[in-house]
Amino acid sequence: MKTKIETKQLVLLGLLTAILLVMSYTPLGYLNIGPLAISFNVIPVALAAVTLGPVGGVIVGGVFGLTSFLQCIGIGGTSAMGVILFDINPVLAFIQRFIPRVLDGLLIGFIFKGVRKATNTYVSCAVTGFCSAFLNTAFFMSALVLLFGNTDYMQKLMGGKNFIVFICSFVGINAVCEMAASTIITGAVGAALYKARLIPAQNRSAASAQAE
Length: 212
What we know:
The protein has helices at 2-24, 42-70, 80-88, 90-116, 121-148, 152-158, 163-195, 204-209; strands spanning 30-33, 36-39.
């Protein structure tokens, strides 16, 4: 039984990773608007965290971060901002693109587990989807300001605004669209995966106290 479960998890991990790669290297994953892009790649990360826990979230989040960094050098598309950051400092550009996505996957894995103790699977998946998009934006922008805030490029973008005002004004509608899409799709797909028994059931006491 354990071997079957592990095999199912590996297959699911491979499938979600493949979906993320397809999204990353086709227009399905990004909607470019200005220097930033609306990214739907947070959704496979959220689904990995929901079905496979923090470890799954970290792995798929890491793949997301790697594909994001590769765009800095024109592989799988080009990020206008990424190209500039890579020219400034390739190592810091990698950290800024990779680490936030790994942290995102890790944390939302724990968020799903915690929220699910208080509510049903659909709501837990929807909340996880929202947090995936929210934390991705928060970590990405925080790393951007922290690592590149003193550069001429960032000083020009910030235009004298403080940290919070800059992030809110810069991400704008992009972040709102990401959060809405991730919340709705992760909730719906997560509920379907639960019915397909790809999300482990809660213990009986919890399940009897609330409708799954």
